[in-house]
Design a protein that fits this description.
Deoxyribonuclease I, Chain A; about 20% strand; alpha+beta; calcium; six-stranded mixed beta sheet; about 475 residues; Recoverin, domain 1
């Protein structure tokens, strides 16, 4: 079992620097900094690594006047330059091992140079990636050379609705973090930085789920091709969805845990869904959408394809419920005019079209619909009866009711004696009001909170199964 160290809710983390100087956590101004809490944590007897994810709100999207939606911060160099200097002050004050930024204004050469120069001077290697179709923003990932070397870097271009991208980094610790039976050896990790599509309406659930599926598929392919299956995986970013959504459920079913929730001992229950927030969106709503996901090397979990299908069945049920259909009515809707009391493949596809999940640029492809059909047709007789419908579709978990999912499919890979995993040691949101589910009106660094997590390494034996929350 992996031990979890609970975060101290009364910690002064981010309020005082190592010299005791005060910091304005709302305006972002820092005076006289000489080091941060996280860097000092790494100097303790227990080796630690830290990771920060932050959507820094690209100036091309930041509105300066709610009455004039066309007036953006990008029109005022003094505004965006000062704000991004403050963001960099904070990042360099914390000095996390890994920094993952979203909505990085990659279209502005001066801002790009500002980040590259200051991060490079502080000892970071930087990687940037623009969104597709000439979007103005993108991603930036920075890795501190004192803690990691980058073994490989991949860019993931989704090429779908939303022009989203992701970065995949294979890193190795600069010094051994743990000692196993074979002696000291550097540890390796996979890091992903991404920013999912905003769910403007429920019809975009499929494309958001597909974006995550592509990330996990790329991770699995990379691990298989490089024979690196037993590494911790850290997924960072703005997931644009809360703990009640389909993406959260999908990642949980794949063995990932939310580092912040683990640190604060929050569960997947609805009661804990709104204990913290990290974003105030353009509609004025506040919710928790920024996550640092962790998956330790584990023996068992559901196959990726199975988890994907279960998540899509949940979305289908969600749309049927939105149409106020009962269980019997939903079966009749999918059966349509078929006379024999069965759902046929053609009727199934027609039902998906009517709920806007098929036949749209951001919906299911016909190949995906066929794969779903094959899983729904459990006995393989070419039709789905009421029992199969209930088992595969109606009993699927909807996002408002989802609970923890754990897999049971055994990993066919050869078991190894000792592997290195990660404990969640500390996790903190800034501004700190976000940890109480509130959003301070005078916070101006971004419309997102900054999430920083500290991990400590742990030796796990091959016979152990990691408890995921």
């Amino acid at each position: 079992m992996v031990a979890v160290v609970q975060s101290n809710a009364n910690s002064s983390m981010g309020h005082l620097n190592s010299s005791g100087n005060e910091i304005d956590v709302l305006t972002g101004s820092i005076s006289g900094t000489t080091g941060g809490f996280l860097s000092s944590t790494m100097m303790t007897e227990e080796p630690c690594i830290s990771c920060t994810t932050f959507n820094i709100l690209a100036p091309c999207y930041k509105r300066l006047d709610n009455k004039d939606q066309n007036k953006r911060e990008s029109d005022s160099r003094a505004f965006w330059f000062a704000r991004n200097q403050s963001i960099l002050d904070w990042l360099l004050f914390e000095r996390s091992s890994i920094i993952c930024l979203q909505e990085f204004w990659i279209d502005n050469k001066e801002l790009v140079h500002l980040y590259q120069e200051r991060l490079r001077d502080a000892g970071y290697i930087t990687f940037q990636l623009a969104r597709t179709n000439k979007r103005e923003d993108g991603l930036l990932t920075a890795v501190h050379k004192d803690y990691f070397s980058v073994l490989n870097y991949h860019e993931l271009l989704f090429n779908d609705f939303g022009d989203r991208v992701a970065q995949l980094l294979h890193v190795q610790s600069a010094v051994p973090l743990t000692q196993n039976r074979k002696g000291n050896a550097p540890q390796e990790f996979l890091i992903v930085n991404t920013h999912l599509l905003f769910p403007h309406d429920s019809s975009l659930s499929i494309v958001r789920l597909h974006q995550v599926y592509k990330i996990l598929q790329s991770v699995e392919t990379y691990q298989r091709e490089n024979k690196k299956s037993h590494m911790p995986i850290i997924l960072c970013g703005d997931w644009n969805g809360s703990k009640r959504g389909h993406v959260y459920k999908f990642l949980r079913s794949q063995g990932f845990v939310s580092s912040y929730d683990i640190a604060h001992q929050y569960t997947d229950s609805d009661a804990d869904a709104h204990k913290w927030v990290s974003h105030r969106n353009h509609r004025g709503n506040i919710c928790g959408v920024d996550f640092i996901w962790l998956r330790n090397p584990i023996k068992s979990r559901k196959s990726l394809k199975t988890s994907w299908a279960e998540a899509v069945f949940g979305i289908i049920k969600y749309h049927l419920l939105r149409a106020s259909l009962s269980e019997n009515d939903a079966f009749a809707f999918l059966k349509a005019d078929e006379p024999d009391g069965f759902i046929t493949y053609s009727a199934f596809c027609e039902g998906l079209r009517q709920v806007n999940l098929l036949g749209r640029p951001y919906g299911l492809s016909y190949r995906q619909a066929k794969d779903l059909w094959l899983q729904a047709d459990i006995d393989g007789n070419g039709v789905v009866d009421y029992k199969e419908f209930k088992l595969k579709i109606w009993n699927s978990t909807c996002p408002e009711q989802e609970e923890s999912c754990t897999g049971s499919t055994e990993d066919s890979e050869q078991e190894i004696e000792e592997i290195t995993g990660l404990n969640v040691k500390e996790a903190v949101l800034f501004p700190r009001e976000a940890e109480k589910g509130m959003w301070p009106e005078n916070y101006c660094l971004s419309d997102h909170a900054r999430l920083t997590v500290v991990f400590s390494p742990v030796i796990m034996h091959g016979s152990q199964q990691v408890v995921s929350g």
